[in-house]
Amino acid sequence: MIEFDRVTKSYTRRGAGRAGSVDALQEVSLSIGESEIFGVVGESGSGKSTLLRMVNALEMPSYGAVTVNGVNLASLRPAARRAQRRRIGMVFQQFNLLANKTVVANVGLPLSLHQRRGGFCTRVGGSDAPASGTADRAREMLDFVNMGAHASKHPAQLSGGEKQRVAIARALVNEPDILLCDEPTSSLDSQHTDEVMATLLRVREEMGTSILLVSHELEVIRGACDRAAILESGRLTGIAEIAQLQAREKFDSYSERARKYLEGGQE
């Protein structure tokens, strides 16, 4: 489904010649299968996010090719590239929700931008309620991530984990084949991390979506992924086959988790 063939990405420092170039990725080759959760790990500056952004052509290779569903996005004209991107969802570290829109409006926004199932009506009396078809699909996705009860709230009224689940719903609203996740749990506590990761596992199990998960948190990668690429200074140093772990104990609240851990139980 996703193929990197000897991909190199080079940047040139402003005012520098060829000697001033920096390789963010060097000769990276790997394949990601259908319905696979594939991790990418590495220290800061190892090229993780650059690799991720090449899958939806936010970055283009300097050399080599990235093929998604048999298509090299770099070879497409802009309109065709946008159509391909509709099949790829993106979840960001900092949620990227619009503060002045409700939760349901945030989730439905991609449908409006892609002119699917209607769009957003203009504000009337301060309202930004989505058109009925868009709202139905947005609420369906909010129910899927267990956030349906929060549809009329604004992002400021949500916790970090709730915001990230809304962001996942927004990424799924166009029914993508691939979901890209850039450090989706790095700003969350352990309880909310578990909730977000459980949501991503449901995405794969119930929708068959392929997930590319970038994280510096080894525990997150090991708990969710089938395989993981290890990057160091822009080079692929290996692909780990991840051993299946016993499921972590689930907690209904942070206080329950903290008490169990502090009184001598295992987190």
From TrEMBL:
Domain ABC transporter: 2-258
Gene3D superfamilies registered for this protein in UniProt: P-loop containing nucleotide triphosphate hydrolases
Keyword ATP-binding: yes
InterPro entries, per database record: AAA+_ATPase, ABC_transporter-like_ATP-bd, ABC_transporter-like_CS, ABC_transpr_LolD-like, P-loop_NTPase
SUPFAM superfamilies in UniProt: P-loop containing nucleoside triphosphate hydrolases (SSF52540)
Gene Ontology molecular function terms on file: ATP binding; ATP hydrolysis activity; transmembrane transporter activity
Pfam families: ABC_tran
This protein's GO CC annotations: plasma membrane
Superkingdom of the organism of origin: Bacteria
Keywords carried by this UniProt record: ATP-binding, Nucleotide-binding
PANTHER family according to UniProt: IMPORT ATP-BINDING PROTEIN (PTHR24220)
Protein known as: D-methionine transport system ATP-binding protein
Organism: Nesterenkonia sandarakina
Organismal lineage: Bacteria, Bacillati, Actinomycetota, Actinomycetes, Micrococcales
